Design the sequence.
């Protein structure tokens, strides 16, 4: 009977599975252009004296704008072409179009057009069209053209009359009412071109030029006046502006402007001061940005009512293309650009900036899965599948890739560099070397939080194009958003959205008063079933394009919307309740009334920042400038930046807690002695003479119980190597005649932690000293040590077990077997948490984990996070926002060994991609460390796309030890009767490594909380910069407060230690950073 | 006639006996290359590192190198002979034997295509490719007689294999830079390497890797580095371009130039490095000036 049932069910299961697989149909169907009546093509023809070698933006393409130019309810489509004529297609319904270009008079006169945008410039209720042009370069002629809509399907070019006839290197423009005077102003974006002068210090941006950079044009009675200088808009020779987005980032009612700049110039975030001026705030706001910034878009992707931003770059997703393309700049050039030339941190990949609401953003593109979309131009954030979450469309592709490394190697060779551009033959060979870059466009499904899922293969037709400008609009009036791209050397793509068949929508058109008839800048809030959505009416999105002036919301299966609130640019508002989905609302400003938004109740901060100098703590940690990557070019991360040591104790034996704050190599540590509410810096020569050492950890304790506090400093720094004396940890015993320095002999490893406990109950405090690495030999097993306190003498014991723990970063004493004896749990990198059971002072490794849990663990603390009465173990890991990738099934690998027999061990990180393992590093770095590869592969194309097993022979790989990591998320080990189970934290805690933890009752509610913080910068530029974590106060597994909510200011700070200290009855939080000033916070209780 | 036959047979037998009993190799490869013997020897040393279980056994002057090579399951003995034809051409003869199969090989080589022949061709080709790449990406230009100024330096002293000089520099670079930074010493010009001992035959070096610094009134305490003052001197100068690992190509060129032009030299080259490899430039364009101090009055 059982057998029969199983046989009978099998076909049903198979059927269900098969039908499940087929269920997800293409979200977008490609429109047949012949049937639709679209004949436009943007064909770009190279000439010997004008091509991608002569003009860096030769393949940026034209523009596309969608809007209803004849107010018949059907959005029309306008294309601009680089070398050809513009086209205006009138939407005739049923996805058919009529070319009215000639009748309308919008074909244009320029020899090189770029972006096109629609906006009602003269406030007559009809959309006008503004077309940008490159003029003055290589004999390109003309000017930006403004086609004013006459309301009868004809237009008049009146750019001169309106003051918009610029002869510059324009790429795009955006309409906004920056001064809220009811009239649309223009932000015009121009791009720089490479000249010897455009490379240099960031202050090049301060000197305005006519052709390059941005221009703010104020609408003064129908004439646009350049107010850039007064408004503090940069227009320098290094202003490679390719993307412009407008949004009210800080929700103060005034529109702010984001400008994406290509190449070395920073992206600009112009915060509108509300008085006609802007303050460029990019460095303050962003931990890093995209480097070769192209288009961008702005929308609230995580439903918190704050506009988030994506800026596109050109990092390939395909492995072979990735390794053939220009890599990140090296660590020294990045240092020079940021420290000497004054630029912000920029990395060549897309940047997703999550607005934190305090003027700062968390950059999460790697974790969000949207960092690599190849040669990307236009980003469109919209709810394409109408499930309430913002999705992301990315247009991409280029006919020839000028960032191909073999091409660059050719053109930068000495023989060619002198003739390139002058010799036809050299140019032709160079052009032939540039590979084809036509690619599939990308689309990602948003989750409503930080993550996006790549749906390109499922949702889009399979095709390779060079799509540049892109815009959305509801071309077939079925409620969902269709996409149109302008493609270089091909017909445009019309992607017709099919989601109306399965999900519901609401569209809102706005009728404002005065000159801003389309309500540009209005905010619209939607509430349904507890889901909140927020949109702003700005039409210029993506790249060189503008989308339909309509607000669109998706509702999934829901057909009723609880309420819609519109806030018009002048602050008036209207509220609509109980609205049916699947309709287009036309809302008029006439029905709005004055409105004062209720500010969200401001939470009382737990921490109040105070200036440490006011308390006499005048310390600043300065990391010495040793760069680990000079010596070991393939290191996954540095070892030299793990300080400063921070120790609290009564060093002067006056009953008050003092501070020891360590120095890096050659820089002495400092003591701050507490006296009368403040601290006083003092030098203790017996201790400070060892300034050669780099102090990474320290503890104070009266080890010998003589009534005087002693000190132990653990050293690291990773620069000194072999048996260098400065690598020895030192025990300073306080005696009547001063401190007696006693180096702990035999252990030359780089230290990471010191944890004290009287593990054998003899009344003397013992120590566990964790060591993380061996200098100049990363991957070798560092020996940690257990120091048994024998009446004040610290003796290493049980070396056998403690010398082979792994690359230890942190540890905690905890009686995990509840036998009344303190056990030890040790965490580290490339290892699992190690549980050391204490049985009468003897430690043995025991298993407490049900599954593999090797990580890049950075910190640990014992804390009852699930509030069930026993202590769980909170583990700080690397986080998920990096190029490291690891799962239990496909762990990240680190190969360690001397692969090329030069007596120096290498490490090679390999991560899985499509079932194969590839080295994470680019080939320039691989070759620099392993020169023999150069002999094996003479061209990048020969090496690109090769797996680790193909790059190296089995014999070479057999010499390497392989470490693995299968978990990168931070989380906690929930204590359960049978052992511990790992639980990942939410995405907000995965944006950077969690390096420090501290358990304390911070809010005075008689229950302990756990404060965690981190961020880390010691990685190769290919990883970026992990600075987006502002810390978090963990009250329980369900109550986690982010640092920015509770008064902490830790974004862009790399936290190493968290301590609390009492000063005259008041508790303070002391947070020490690597390479920075400590922060002090007064606790609120 | 019998006598002639006897002489011919005798000569043949003597030849065969010589071939089987006296000639210490079974196969020979000859080729020429556009560089000097010393450079070829160093390239063999570098290449040898990428071979498994192989070792350079002996180097005799600039004329001969013997090497044991393990290749595709066979162990070969290579004797390399070098003859410098002129400043930029060396004739190379490789005599190859397989000690474990000497007799078999001697029988098979004249009549077939035995493994030793296949392997010898493959090994020689492998080395030739390495040498060609090396010569493609490095250039040496002899400038001639020049002079070096006196200079104050902060140095780390090292002993390494000749081929590991650059690794040594990489390891010490950060210790030097952090020392000069920590003590606010002003670095002038480019970092230098001064060879103190050079054993060409064993391929070992003792050298100082130094940063030149501007004079200061009081030198800071130096526990990890050494301050050294070097006197100015007349020297032969060459300009080298390429990876700094193989800059000793210029040493051999200078030694040969000195020999051909009657200069007596210290035999201890001094290198001035103009580019920072950490800045990721194309290694073909890295520049170094190489000096060989002149010790006679020519």
Sequence:
């Amino acid at each position: 009977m059982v057998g029969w049932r199983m046989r009978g069910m099998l076909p049903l299961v198979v059927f269900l599975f098969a039908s499940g697989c087929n269920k997800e149909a293409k979200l977008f169907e490609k429109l047949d252009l012949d049937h639709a009546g679209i004949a436009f093509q943007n064909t770009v023809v190279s000439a010997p004296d004008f091509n991608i070698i002569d003009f860096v933006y030769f393949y940026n393409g034209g523009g596309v704008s969608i809007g209803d130019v004849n107010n018949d309810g059907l959005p029309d489509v306008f294309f601009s072409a680089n070398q050809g004529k513009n086209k205006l297609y009138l939407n005739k319904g049923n996805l058919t179009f009529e070319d009215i270009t000639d009748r309308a008079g919008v074909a244009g006169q320029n020899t090189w057009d770029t972006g096109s945008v629609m906006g009602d410039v003269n406030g007559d209720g009809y959309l006008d069209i503004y077309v940008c042009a490159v003029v003055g370069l290589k004999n390109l002629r003309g000017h930006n053209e403004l086609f004013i809509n006459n309301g009868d399907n004809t237009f008049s070019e009146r750019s001169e009359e309106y003051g918009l006839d610029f002869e510059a290197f324009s790429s795009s423009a955006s309409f906004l009412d920056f001064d809220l005077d009811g009239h649309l102003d223009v932000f015009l974006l121009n791009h720089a071109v490479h000249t010897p002068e455009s490379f240099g210090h960031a202050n090049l941006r301060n000197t305005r030029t006519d052709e390059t950079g941005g221009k703010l044009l104020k609408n003064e009675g129908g004439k646009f006046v350049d107010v850039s200088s007064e408004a503090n808009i940069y227009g320098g020779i290094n202003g490679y502006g390719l993307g412009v987005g407008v949004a009210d980032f800080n929700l103060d009612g005034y529109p702010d402007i984001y400008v994406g700049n290509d190449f070395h110039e920073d992206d600009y975030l112009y915060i509108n001061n509300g008085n006609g001026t802007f303050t460029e705030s990019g460095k303050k706001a962003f931990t890093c940005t995209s480097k070769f910034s192209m288009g961008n878009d702005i929308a609230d992707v995580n439903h918190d009512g704050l506009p988030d931003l994506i800026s596109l770059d050109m990092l390939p997703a395909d492995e072979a293309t990735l390794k053939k393309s220009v890599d990140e700049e090296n660590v020294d050039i990045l240092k020079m650009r940021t420290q000497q030339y004054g630029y912000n941190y920029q990395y060549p990949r897309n940047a997703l900036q999550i607005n934190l609401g305090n003027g700062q953003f968390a950059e999460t593109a790697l974790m969000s899965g949207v960092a690599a979309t190849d040669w990307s131009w236009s980003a469109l954030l919209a709810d394409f599948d109408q499930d309430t979450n913002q999705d992301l469309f990315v247009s991409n592709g280029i006919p020839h890739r000028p960032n191909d490394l073999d091409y660059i190697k050719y053109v930068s060779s000495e023989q060619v560099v002198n003739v390139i551009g002058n010799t036809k033959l050299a140019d032709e060979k160079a052009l032939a070397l540039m590979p084809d870059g036509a690619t599939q466009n990308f689309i990602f499904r948003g989750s409503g939080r930080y993550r996006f899922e790549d749906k390109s293969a499922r949702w889009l037709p399979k095709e390779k194009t060079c799509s540049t400008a892109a815009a959305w609009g509801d071309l077939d009036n079925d409620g969902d958003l269709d996409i149109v791209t302008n493609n270089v050397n091909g017909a445009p793509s019309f992607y017709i959205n099919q989601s109306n068949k399965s999900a519901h929508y609401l569209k809102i058109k706005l009728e404002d008063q005065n000159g801003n008839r389309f309500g540009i800048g209005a905010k619209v809030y939607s509430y349904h079933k507890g889901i909140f959505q927020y949109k702003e009416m700005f039409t210029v999105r993506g790249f060189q394009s503008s989308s339909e002036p309509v607000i669109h919301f998706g509702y999934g299966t829901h057909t009723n919307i609880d309420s819609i609130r519109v806030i018009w640019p002048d602050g008036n508002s209207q509220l609509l309740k109980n609205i049916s989905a699947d309709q287009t609302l036309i809302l008029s400003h006439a029905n709005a009334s004055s409105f004062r938004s209720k500010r969200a109740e401001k939470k009382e901060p737990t921490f109040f920042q105070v200036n440490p100098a006011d308390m006499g703590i005048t310390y600043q940690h300065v990391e010495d400038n040793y760069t680990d990557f000079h010596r070991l070019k393939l290191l996954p991360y540095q070892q030299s930046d793990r300080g400063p040591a921070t120790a609290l104790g009564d060093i002067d034996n006056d009953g008050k807690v003092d501070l020891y704050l360590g120095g890096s190599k050659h820089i002495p540590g400092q003591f701050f002695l507490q006296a009368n509410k403040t601290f006083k810096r003092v030098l203790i020569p017996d201790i400070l003479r060892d300034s050669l050492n780099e102090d990474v950890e320290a503890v104070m304790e009266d080890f010998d119980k003589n009534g005087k506090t002693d000190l132990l400093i653990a050293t690291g720094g990773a620069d000194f190597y072999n048996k260098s004396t400065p690598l020895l940890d030192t025990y300073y015993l306080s005696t009547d005649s001063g401190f007696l320095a006693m180096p702990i002999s035999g252990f030359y490893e780089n230290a990471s932690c010191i944890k004290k406990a009287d593990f054998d109950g003899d009344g003397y405090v013992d120590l566990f000293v964790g060591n993380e690495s061996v200098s100049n030999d990363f991957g070798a097993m560092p020996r940690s040590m257990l120091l048994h306190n024998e009446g004040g003498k610290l003796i290493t014991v049980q070396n056998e077990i403690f010398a082979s723990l792994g690359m230890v970063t942190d540890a905690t004493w905890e009686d995990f077997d509840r036998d009344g004896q303190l056990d030890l749990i040790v965490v580290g990198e490339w290892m699992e948490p190690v549980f050391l059971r204490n049985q009468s002072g003897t430690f043995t490794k025991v298993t407490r984990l049900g599954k593999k849990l090797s990580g890049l663990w950075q910190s640990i603390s014992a804390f009852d996070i699930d509030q069930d009465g026993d202590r769980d173990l909170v583990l700080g890991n690397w986080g998920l926002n990096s190029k490291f990738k690891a799962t239990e099934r496909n762990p990240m690998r680190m190969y360690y060994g001397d692969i090329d027999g030069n007596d120096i061990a290498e490490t090679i990180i390999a991560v899985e991609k499509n079932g194969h393992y590839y080295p994470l590093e680019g080939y320039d770095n691989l070759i620099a460390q392993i020169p023999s590869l150069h002999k094996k592969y003479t061209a990048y194309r020969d090496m690109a796309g090769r797996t680790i097993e193909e790059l190296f022979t089995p014999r070479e790989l057999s010499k390497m030890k392989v470490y693995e990591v299968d978990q990168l998320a931070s989380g906690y080990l929930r204590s359960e009767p049978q052992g511990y189970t790992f639980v990942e934290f939410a995405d907000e805690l995965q944006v950077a490594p969690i390096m420090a933890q501290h358990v304390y009752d911070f809010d005075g509610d008689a229950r302990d909380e756990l404060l965690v913080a981190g961020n880390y910068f010691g990685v190769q530029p290919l990883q970026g910069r992990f600075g987006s974590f502002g810390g978090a106060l963990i009250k329980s597994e369900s109550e986690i407060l982010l640092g920015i909510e509770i008064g902490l200011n830790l974004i862009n700070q790399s936290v190493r230690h968290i301590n609390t200290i009492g000063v005259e009855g008041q508790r303070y939080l002391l947070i020490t950073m690597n390479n920075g000033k400590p922060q002090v916070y007064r606790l609120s209780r | 006639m019998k006598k002639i036959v006897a002489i011919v047979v005798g000569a043949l037998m003597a030849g065969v006996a010589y071939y089987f009993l006296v000639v210490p190799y079974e196969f020979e490869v000859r080729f020429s290359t556009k560089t000097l013997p010393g450079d070829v020897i160093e390239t063999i040393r570098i290449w040898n590192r990428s071979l498994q279980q192989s070792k350079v056994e002996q180097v005799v002057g600039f004329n001969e190198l013997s090497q044991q090579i393990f290749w595709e399951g066979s162990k070969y003995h290579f004797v390399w002979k070098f003859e410098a034809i002129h400043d930029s051409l060396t004739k190379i003869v490789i005599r190859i034997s397989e000690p474990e199969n000497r007799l078999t090989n001697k029988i098979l080589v004249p009549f077939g295509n035995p493994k030793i022949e296949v392997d010898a061709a493959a090994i020689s080709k492998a080395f030739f490719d390495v040498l060609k790449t090396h010569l493609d990406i490095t250039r040496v230009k002899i400038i001639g007689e020049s002079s070096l100024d006196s200079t104050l330096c902060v140095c780390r002293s090292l002993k390494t294999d000749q081929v590991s000089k650059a690794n040594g520099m990489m390891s010490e670079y950060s210790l030097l830079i952090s020392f000069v930074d920590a003590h606010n010493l002003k670095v002038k010009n480019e970092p230098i390497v001064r060879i103190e001992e050079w054993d060409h035959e064993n391929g070992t070096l003792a050298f100082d890797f130094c940063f030149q610094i501007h004079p200061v009134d009081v030198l800071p305490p130096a526990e990890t580095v050494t301050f050294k003052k070097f006197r100015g001197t007349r020297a032969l100068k060459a300009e080298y371009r390429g990876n700094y690992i193989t800059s000793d190509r210029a040493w051999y060129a200078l030694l040969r130039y000195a020999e051909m032009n009657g200069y007596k030299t210290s035999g201890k080259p001094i290198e001035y490095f103009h580019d920072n490899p950490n800045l990721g430039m194309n290694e073909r364009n890295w520049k170094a000036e190489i000096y060989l101090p002149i010790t006679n009055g020519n």
In short: Residues 15 and 69 of chain B are 29 Å apart (CA to CA). Chain B touches chain A at residues 49-50, 52, 129-130, 133, 163-164, 167, 170-171, 173-175, 177-179, 181-183, 223-224, 243, 245, 276-280, 282, 284-285 (CB under 8 Å). Chain B has two domains: 21-136, 141-293.
